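User: quick one, fold this
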Amino acid sequence: MPSCTALIVAAGRGSRFGGSLPKQYALLEGEPVLRRTIAALRAAAGIDKVQVVIGGGDEGHYAEATAGLDLPPPVKGGATRQHSVLNGLEALAVDPPDIVAIHDAARPFVRAEDIAACLSSVSEPGIDGAVLGVPLADTLKRVEAGAIVQTVPRAQLWRAQTPQVFRYPALLAVHRSVASLGKQESTAMTDDAAVAEHAGLRVVMVPGHEDNRKITTMEDLRAQGAMETRTAFGFDVHGFGPGNAVTLGGVAIAHSQTLAGHSDADVALHALTDAVLGTIGAGDIGQHFPPSDPQWRGASSDRFLRHAIELLKEAGGRLVHLDLTLVCQAPRIGPHREAMVESIARIAGVARGRVSVKATTTEGLGFTGRGEGIAAQAVATVELPRR
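Assistant:
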């Protein structure tokens, strides 16, 4: 399969947006727009890497918006969009991908399946690029001095969106060529498809969706409705057996016994896995990793949670929060709470602030009170595209 890097252009100032921040760093339902856009690209099958191009002076905003995402250092943009894209393309030349997907930072609602359709189209023989777009539905009027002077036929007219996907070597070459043109001629090319057209490349249009809109004004932030929030519950129990440590949330904790189970018996990660699977209606952990299958004997449970997160991403969703409660008399959870938060956040690919770990006892009642095992309850909160 050809390699693909998503190049997110986040160097613009967004003069029509207003507000104290460039629109890519404004909050959309409590999260920076750029972070939502990165999550949308990462959720698409076929995207191997994400590289962001930012404006000069935005380093602090970028670091705050992308904290914990494990991205390569951002590339500094230029005075024009074309210059910013070229800078990003040049940065990729050290380890060039086969395909590059150029995407606007202010389009956080793009669907994973639409990105996949673009990637599929550009892989066809004779196709140099593929652009996501929607056909025009409104009647177009040409206006001069406030008066309508012409009705413009809308047949065969489309509104171009992003991503715009191209074979990397070809797009780099044409951007280098355009960079040598006069300023007026080059700035007239308002997107990468126009740059490709100028060089005679064959670019096809791929039908997208209206909800892949570009945030332009503050009102656009308030009008979003493409995503819905879901929550699901997970529960797991493991009894104690002979041993000297237990694994909880991916953290080894010294103890007079161990937890018995087919895998490493990490009751915390098992409950979290079931909670995430529940948000997408994907069954439970036993269906994906049956205890009867010897390949999972002694397996590290981080593989289970990562699998559930990948399924969520394939569904176009993103993880919002994980909440875990451990029920046991011993070992004491408090001294290990922060290490567990760090471990779970790393496994799930989210910031630490999106993971909560709590513990309680049953005051000596029941099997946990008698010290026979540990129970875990988990709640996962996610966002998914409305269907």
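User: anything notable?
Assistant: The chain has a mean pLDDT of 90.
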